[in-house]
């Protein structure tokens, strides 16, 4: 919706054309000017442009050149050549900045930015116009443009504000109508249907009084939809009926919406009558899918299941890409599940799960189907259903807690306990509900298998509050006994053991738990208790498996009591029963573990012996890993590296691969093998994104990339790190480093949110202060001076009395901010104080430059030059941009004192000594030209201005050089004419 403003403005311009024409009657170019005005006044825009161009070509120095650019811009606007018009208006304003047309021209500049699609520039230009011309009659015409720009950016609240102002200050009925329509639609975009309905209601009143290009029927239809979505069904029907009456051609659309309204209030007969008619007529092909769906839902509500299934199936086949097909498939799944037809439900689910835009219904169907499959003991099928994830769906609708619980149940049923544990720990659904006790028991069992003993005790204690079955309670007490022993709570463990009734537990289950308790008792130093339990396991009536475990454990108890003879006899019994018993390996491993605290070298020998003679045993990989860990502790890094490399290549299933790579990375770091260490970190980054080690590994890669100057790589890895959910300390370091990446790249605005995130969430030093400083610095570089001031002041307050390198810089920034605020005296005094307080400040040249500016602004030019000279002569600042600026400012001080020869010499040093900074060279050449112009040395002035315009055409000084050239030409011609008269 483009705001209409051009016709109103042309009335004003016509008057201006007439005035302008009268002013040039006596000019020698009057004929050309009159021809251009003739075409312009009649709206022959292209002819007018051609005439204007001819005038400009033949009369480049004529006094009317400036205003010609204005009229030429007007003509270009009418031909929708906005970018050319923008150039014309800009030239007009630069040539005639005091002309009475300037207000209109600056408004047109903003308008042309908008019409050429440069929305940010347009917004900025309109806002500047509003600030500059506070009482302009044109301000009201800016509001529709600003509103539309906000709408395009989906800044709906800003758009609502602007449309509201536009309605209030509208200068025509059509402007009121367009603005109110925009206002209503923006309210709809924000979901504020009540306000949208009110806006539409007033709009309909406006259209009665001022019918225009908008059909009242279409507006009434929009109004009805707003009322429908606001739940005002009676009012919605009134609006729909009004729409049909005012615009009969949309009667079918209104009938459809009225049918939906009847559907909402469960008026089935009236809804069916209209829907059936629309279905038969097929007059709304774009809504036929929804019509079929609504008819199916009504049939289902009325108990006609077969008819509903037929309609839903027909809809799915006829409109496979419709969003209503998701609804239809969900309803089919629900119907099949209620009919216990799991096969049909799964077929429908296959279709629904592959839809391009999953939603809450997709999730609900997934949960219902998985629950039914579990009830039928089809856990593998349930996992297939539950493993499908739909990240596009909003978090609450995704029901992640319920999904994780159901998936954990099936995983546990299939002995995939670690996966079940991760899911149970990631959800809070076990905190309440009918399965609380069983869920906690399951999680406790998994914790114990992973030797997470404190967690085991905590979870199992809570499970006893809800469990009622005796078998389950006994099983929990057995596992609690083991966990309490591992937590060194022996008395509590004995109490738990006393609560166990063996008769209530299956023998195999009981003996399996006794094995765990005996091992825990042994490790807790309760050797006598452990020995009793192992003897119970070694009883002949038990199975061979438990007997072997009993004998192995008994041997260790005997070794612990220094009864070597009895231990040897027991181990002989074990090997006699089963020479290949894996428990013999376990005994060796346990013995080596015990030896670690007594004799590390002997423990290493035992581990190596185990790995050598039992390479296929799972404990062999653990033994190798223990050797690597011990070598690492002994700083025998090359030996540790060799073992870890072997393990990563063989990839034993019993060891987490990411842990191996992580250990390998740090062993290599200890040996200064950074490139190889980074390769190991990259393995974790690429292959183990769900690992706890992923964050640190990613951070290390980014850190190395930043250190090597590879900013893009550092940014890439840090962004991946921050994309992970959560606020871990690693993530905060990553956020800080990403801020540093943006700082190095000069992306100051992008650095701000990263530094703020760190300073807000990390209290630890020095990271907090560093983030505070860089947050202030980024704001300073982004010219957000008030925000930067607040940040620096807070940082200085927090670090009062500390010795940080950033403190004098923060102080200096505060002084520079005072300068930006034109408080030159305060800035100067603060700079002097910094110089005194920080005599070794590395950036003293920046302070000197600042003091030079302050002194110059206060008219102390000689002292200012002295300060600038210190910058130029500073070894630190030499050949820097700051030095170039200081040298240029020396020239400025001479210029302001009208000592033009000295100014030229100072500017010349900029042009010759600082080639690396073309901006300042261009500025210096321009100023040299001005010096020559003031001294009426027209030839030299022309030379320097021409050099700026041609050699530095992309610089901000080229337009001014072009303007000055025009003036110099005129003065040169005048001088020539004066010379001829003299002759």
Helices and strands in order:
Elements: H1 6-23, H2 30-41, H3 45-58, H4 65-78, H5 82-95, H6 102-115, H7 119-132, H8 139-152, H9 156-168, H10 173-189, H11 193-209, H12 216-229, H13 233-246, H14 251-264, H15 268-281, H16 288-301, H17 305-318, H18 324-338, H19 342-353, H20 360-375, H21 379-386, H22 395-398, H23 400-413, H24 417-425, H25 436-449, H26 453-463, H27 470-486, H28 490-498, H29 507-523, H30 527-537, H31 544-560, H32 564-577, H33 582-595, H34 600-613, H35 618-633, H36 637-650, H37 657-670, H38 674-687, H39 694-707, H40 711-723, H41 729-745, H42 748-761, H43 767-781, H44 785-798, H45 806-820, H46 824-837, H47 844-857, H48 861-873, H49 881-896, H50 900-913, H51 918-934, H52 938-951, H53 958-982
What this model shows, in words?
There is one protein chain. It contains 53 helices and no strands. The protein is an all-alpha fold and 983 residues long. The longest helix has 25 residues, at 958-982. The two termini are 67 Å apart.
List keywords for this structure.
single chain; 983 residues; mainly alpha; 53 helices; flat
Envelope shape: flat
* N- and C-termini, Cα separation: 67 Å
Computed CA radius of gyration, to the nearest angstrom: 42 Å
Which regions have little confidence, pLDDT < 50, spanning 5+ residues?
A: 4-26
Assembly state here?
Answer: single chain
Q: What's the number of extended β-strand segments?
A: 0
Content-based structural category: mainly alpha
What about the largest sheet?
A: none
| Strand percent estimate | under 5%
> Mean of the pLDDT scores?
85
